[in-house]
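Support reply, case 0932

Customer input (verbatim):
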Amino acid sequence: MTADTGQAAQGDVGTPHRSRWARGTQILWRYRANGRRDPHICRPVTVVQDTPDLLAVWMAPGTPCVKPQLADGTPVHREPLATRYTKPRTVTRCRWSGTGVLKLATPGDPWSVWLFWEPGWRFKNWYVNLEEPHRRWSRGVDSEDHFLDLCVYPDGSWEWRDEDEFAQARAAGLMDAAQAGRVREAGQRALSAVRRWEAPFPDGWEHWRPDPAWPVPRLPRDWDRPARP
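Our regenerated output:
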């Protein structure tokens, strides 16, 4: 599946037809807290493409989001790694800073691929986010982050990211040995796809651009509502 030009067809925006969302539809991209059913990350996004083979969404700069933080207000990334996953948490509202992100998810794959740009649309890298396969519901998709990630650069080189967080999450009991093994196996499968330069890497998505008419999505008050088909 290759990238399109980013221009919406007339009458393209609307409600989902059967199980597919029309281009331009605003949905929620959420992550559950590890080992729990309630979401603790929510990012409103705009559908770029929704087919049996691929869900592509755009998270615009300045998008209002929900992210976790420690109960005392400390940002998660500023907490020492040793206590990052053991201290009480809550959630806070924020806005996505920097350039936007294009997210690509193939149904059934335990990862999604994100595209990042520098200002001025200079392509920066792909980011393979290891996670549970997405579960669709009426207003979006839900997953669970698995900490370990893979960064892929335009020249085809790559590196693992957040291996320390992955190890600490395992030590903190956020995943057992069996799940950690499955995540490692998923990471190797993703890496094999990179080495063979399989979709979506050769598909031209780095040249994609959002429709300038798309508004920045709003964050609904019931962003954490239970997922229902």
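We compared this against your earlier run and they match. Two observations from our side: The radius of gyration is 17 Å. Residues 1-17 have pLDDT under 50 and may be disordered. Please reopen the case if you see a mismatch on your end.
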